[in-house]
Amino acid sequence: MRVFSFLLISLLVALVGCTFDQSGGKEPSAKFYQKQMERLSKEALAHLSEVDPDSMAIPRSAHKDGSLYGTNSRSWTSGFYPGVLWMLYAHSNDTRFKEAALDWTQFVEKEKYDTHTHDLGFKVYNSFGQAYKNTNDNSYMEVVLEASKTLANRYNPKVGCIRSWDFNKDVWQFPVIIDNMMNLEMLFEATRLSGDSTFYDLAYQHALTTLKNHFRSDYSTYHVIDYDTLTGGVRNRHTHQGQSHESSWARGQAWGLYGFAMAYRETKDPRFYKQAVAISDFMYEHPNMPSHGVPYWDFNAEKIPNEPVDASAAAIATCGMLILCELDSTCHSKMLPRIDLSLKTLNSKEFFAHTPPFLLDHSVGNIPGDSEVDVPIIYADYYFVEALMRRIKLGKMIETKLAFL
Ligand code: GLY
Predict the structure, then answer these.
(1) Cα separation, 94 vs 48, whole angstroms
(2) Does residue 179 line the site of ligand 1, with CB under 6 A?
């Protein structure tokens, strides 16, 4: 009986190996992803000695000449580099990552009181939230809770959303951008940490309002919805970083996909699941999606195919699809080929960054603003590392499930 069980399990494990490496070595395998994580960890470790902790030069992007574009903690991107280091520590258990992550994380703390931004999830949750996850130190949790209280102050009950930006007041009354879905994750976590359901309720309502007003009938998303604070109605549907108001800015689609996948995980509201899948369909079935699975910076960019791609959009979208796969195996047959396509391309030599401390090249920040075009950007690294870690974990989950069938 024992010998029979052993043979059966061996057979299933072998079958799983084939499932994960579906096309005889052409598609990425579990081993491929492990190797890529090792490559990234090695590279990031080497970078630690090349970039000294500096509160005024938190890595954001690279200038065209390869020099570092660093910022202080006020930039919406200040949490990503510490977050990358925390994830690499979680993956490798190498304390050199932890020491560096602690150094960079502390620079972001004062942002917990900044009432002028919606980006507190990006800044504080990706740094202090990761610090708490990896150390269980309550002082980091306190920073997350303080930032959540600050963020909750930007919620307007008439609109049913958290206000995104304070600039452009002569045009917008109450602008909400699709990116803001990402900041909800910290609020959901704040309820778990504090027991105060207010954070959860605001986040849930923000997601519902966004679902109602941000999308076109083909499930593409607008970038900016401007609300009337007296009626709660929509005043304008605009873009800020896309080609035009009616175009589909690639990173905006990716924020929406990740945001609704995460909101589904937190609330189990099936409308959010459906939305995330529909956004993935919009992106991956779009005639302008390149066959390698890394989208141009805008699906309606004028000079496609002679337009820059945005690696950050692919990395964020891939994380969103992985969250769906972690929750629901029925979407694997559709999502895994998309995930593996994008991740395989992002791991190809063409996308290696050559400017420390960055890992991934070819992202686009803001083309209409003529800034950060076709360069490495830190949030692409963050979601790239997250995606690889999630893909490795998902592979193991599938393997374990099949082995126990
Ligand atoms: N949240 C700003 C951006 O995606 O560029």
Answers:
(1) 12
(2) yes
